[in-house]
Design brief:
- The chain is an alpha/beta fold and 317 residues long.
- It is 50% helix and 15% strand.
- The chain has two domains: 13-116, no CATH class; 128-308, no CATH class.
- The chain has helices at 13-16, 28-48, 53-70, 72-85, 91-116, 128-138, 154-163, 178-190, 203-212, 244-252, 284-304; strands at 144-148, 168-172, 195-197, 216-220, 229-234, 237-242, 256-264, 267-275.
- The strands form two sheets. A six-stranded mixed sheet has the order 3-2-4-1-7-8, sandwiched between helices. It has a two-stranded antiparallel ribbon with strand order 5-6.
- The longest helix has 26 residues, at 91-116.
Length: 317
């Protein structure tokens, strides 16, 4: 399959005028709205934290069901995205997947609250062949670029890798509201998952240093984001896709793997697949080919576990 044509995604001034991460300023209305949302979130966390993890998971699933019913625009986006991914599937089945996705994501939110409250959850197992694949890549001594997705309980995936002795550092984006970023920092600190923020000072230096130390660099790349991107097929449909994983891998020579949660005979587990980079060179052509290969693997994984993905995200313009 030939790579999709290159297309740069560049943030426009109007899009970032009110984004504090890019030097913008909130309007008074935005500041009030964000303060209310943050207050509601902190209040909900405080009220829910004393509950057992199983209750929090059940409450999260109920909340997901409620959100699906109450918010029409994200629901419409989920249905449109599912139609792109499953064009031959009957509408009723796609609607069922959309509802299940909301319910599952609500359950993962409940698990996150449990983790914030200091309640450990059982680690997801790593498939034996996957662990061997990762260890072989690490043995090459150039670090590993670990491309991933918001598929299943992704925070728990990172924590499970660290618990299994994988030297993981993740790439993250600061939250729209710095107060929410601090909540995520608390979670990642509790899980011993170090993070590099893309907008942070000397982030590129820290990224290169991470790989030179032989660590695993976790990079989610399934969502549309205001980062350097190119068009690459996702479910066979061209989608603006972050080019960072391919660019970093080809410029450093680090091997590339894709890893996510995946359904197994005994429940969810972590599976890892190495992506072929033989013959690819740094530069736009090699980056386009590698990004297309990464999206092809992510597409395969999401289609095999559709209820675990964020279909309500506006992935396509």
């Amino acid at each position: 399959m030939r790579p999709a044509p290159m297309s740069s995604t560049v943030p426009v001034a109007s899009a970032s005028a009110h984004d504090v991460r890019e030097g913008g300023r909130w309007t008074p209305l935005q500041a009030t709205k964000n303060a209310v949302l943050y207050g509601l979130a902190r209040g909900a966390i405080a009220l829910a934290s004393p509950l057992p993890a199983s209750w929090l998971r059940a409450l999260g699933r109920a909340l997901g069901c409620l959100v699906y019913a109450m918010l029409p625009q994200p629901r419409r986006t989920a249905h449109e995205n599912l139609a792109r991914a499953f064009p031959c599937m009957v509408h009723a089945k796609r609607r069922r997947i959309a509802r299940l996705a909301y319910v599952e994501l609500g359950g993962y939110l409940g698990e996150t609250v449990a983790l914030l409250a200091g309640r450990p959850l059982s680690a997801l197992p790593i498939a034996e062949t996957s662990r061997r694949e990762l260890d072989l890549a690490l043995a090459e001594g150039r670090g590993v670029v670990f491309a991933s997705a918001h598929l299943g309980p992704w925070e728990r995936v990172a924590a499970s890798l660290v618990a299994a002795g994988v030297p993981l550092t993740t790439i993250a984006r600061e939250g729209y509201d710095a107060r929410f970023t601090r909540i995520l920092d608390k979670l990642r600190s509790a899980l011993d998952v170090p993070a590099i923020y893309r907008g942070g000072l000397a982030a590129h230096v820290r990224i290169l240093r991470t790989l030179r130390r032989g660590r695993v660099l976790g990079m989610p790349m399934d969502l549309r984001s205001r980062v350097p991107s190119i068009a690459a097929p996702l479910f066979g449909v061209p989608a603006d896709t972050p080019v960072g994983p391919a660019r970093i891998a080809l410029s450093t020579g680090a091997p590339v793997v894709v890893g996510t949660a995946a359904p197994g005979p005994l429940g969810l587990r972590i599976t890892i697949t190495r992506i072929d980079t033989a013959g690819l060179k740094a530069g736009t052509h090699g980056e386009a080919i590698l990004t297309a290969r990464l999206n092809a693997e992510l597409s395969r994984r999401i289609l095999a576990f559709p209820e675990g993905w964020v279909w309500m995200h506006p992935r396509w313009r």
